[in-house]
Design a protein that fits this description.
The chain is of the alpha+beta class. The chain contains eight helices and 16 strands.
Length: 380
């Protein structure tokens, strides 16, 4: 081998070695950057991190604690004091004084065990499966025995050519057109809505919402005793009550931002990774198209669109928890034109927690009205 060939070979080996070192360093740096990114985005705290004496619900996200408690209470037809201790108006949720709390733990363990061993971890069995709104389970049939329902007669076969069902995309496209088009939706940057909030017990209070973009929201509640403000500045949710200022719990913040969310019930397509047509049932005497969707987080939702008008009239969600699937339903009605965009002036929320089962009735909605960012900041 000539001297020039030997020199070329040595240079090649050197460059290969340098390349290997660079690849190793690049991979190590990328891994460190990835690890740094993961550390910089903390996960939602779990209930045992924020509460004492959590034994069987370890790992449950904090935002699901109150919905799960309400689900179990509704399934048995009881309230918080059935299992938890309240002395002179002060709650001691960590106390094990009541035997019902021990029984509840045993039942939760049984339910999760059944679902794990028999249903591959899916929450097919829940508290409601057996209790049905009662504290005791009915173990046998009661007299008089229920009368079997007659077998329904088969529906007559349709005659003549039938219109094919639309696709999920076609139904949502019709909805976009019905409310004013995608351009009108994109044009909306802020919104101010005034009206009333009607609770389950019929009580009615003044209600005003100011929104800017997808995050900033301020709700003003005019109570008999005074005004309560609830806001979100993009990072912190807060409430200014009659005497003090406090931060909102995860569930309170969810409902503050969700109903009514400025875009969530308008920009539908980007919220779902999968959309399928689910049939043509009837709601309140009107035909509706059903669209079933799955979000990126795996949450299942069902959307109902009026066949004639194209408007979204109902939206149901299901939240999977260790003790069962928690449903929630939102109904939309009284669509009116607001600066070229048709919006519902009545929104009814039906939730497991009666506190959030309310009707929002708006009398005035303004789009792109001046909304100043400082009103969303948490007061001192």
């Amino acid at each position: 081998m000539s001297r020039s060939s030997r020199n070329l070979a040595r240079l090649t080996i050197v460059f290969l070695a340098i390349g290997c070192v660079l690849v190793v360093l690049f991979n190590r740096t990328s891994a460190q950057n990835t690890q740094t990114t993961q550390v910089a985005t903390p996960a939602e705290p779990t209930v045992e991190q924020n509460h004492k004496n959590i034994q069987v619900l370890k790992g449950l996200p904090e935002s699901q604690l109150i919905p799960v408690m309400n689900f179990m209470g509704t399934s048995l037809g009881v309230r918080c004091n059935y299992c938890h201790v309240n002395k002179d108006g002060n709650w001691d949720f960590a106390s094990d004084e009541k035997g019902e709390k021990k029984s509840a733990r045993e039942m939760i363990t049984m339910v999760t065990g059944i679902n794990k061993t028999s249903f591959r971890g899916n929450p097919e069995v829940s508290c409601y499966t057996c209790h049905r709104g009662r504290t005791s389970v009915q173990h046998t049939l009661a007299f008089p025995l229920p009368t079997p329902e007659p077998r329904p007669s088969p529906a007559p076969s349709p005659t003549g050519p039938q219109q094919p069902n639309p696709t999920a995309e076609q139904v949502i496209d019709k909805y976009y057109q019905a409310v004013g088009g995608a351009a009108a939706i994109e044009k909306m940057k802020s919104r101010v809505m005034k009206g009333t909030l009607v609770a389950n017990n019929g009580n009615e209070i003044g209600y005003e919402v100011s929104q800017s973009g997808a995050d900033l929201v301020l709700a003003t509640l005019t109570m008999p005793a005074g005004i309560i403000l609830r806001g979100f500045d993009g990072t912190v949710g807060w409430e200014k009550g009659l005497r003090s200022v406090r931060e909102l719990s995860p569930s309170e913040l969810y409902y503050l931002r969700r109903y009514p969310d400025i875009y969530k019930d308008l920009k539908l397509k980007e919220q779902f990774t999968r959309l399928t047509f689910g049939g043509k049932p009837n709601i309140d005497g009107r035909d509706v198209y059903v669209i079933r969707g799955t979000t990126a987080s795996g949450k299942r939702e069902t959307l109902f669109f009026d066949v004639e008008t194209g408007f979204l009239v109902r939206r149901t969600t299901s939240t999977t928890t260790p003790v069962g699937t928690i449903p929630e339903q939102v109904d939309f009605a009284d669509y009116k034109d607001v600066d070229g965009l048709k919006l519902p002036f009545t929104i009814r929320v039906t939730a497991i927690d009666p506190t959030y089962s309310v009707v929002r009735k708006f009398t005035e909605i303004k789009l792109n009205a001046p909304v100043y960012a400082k009103i969303f900041n948490k007061p001192a």
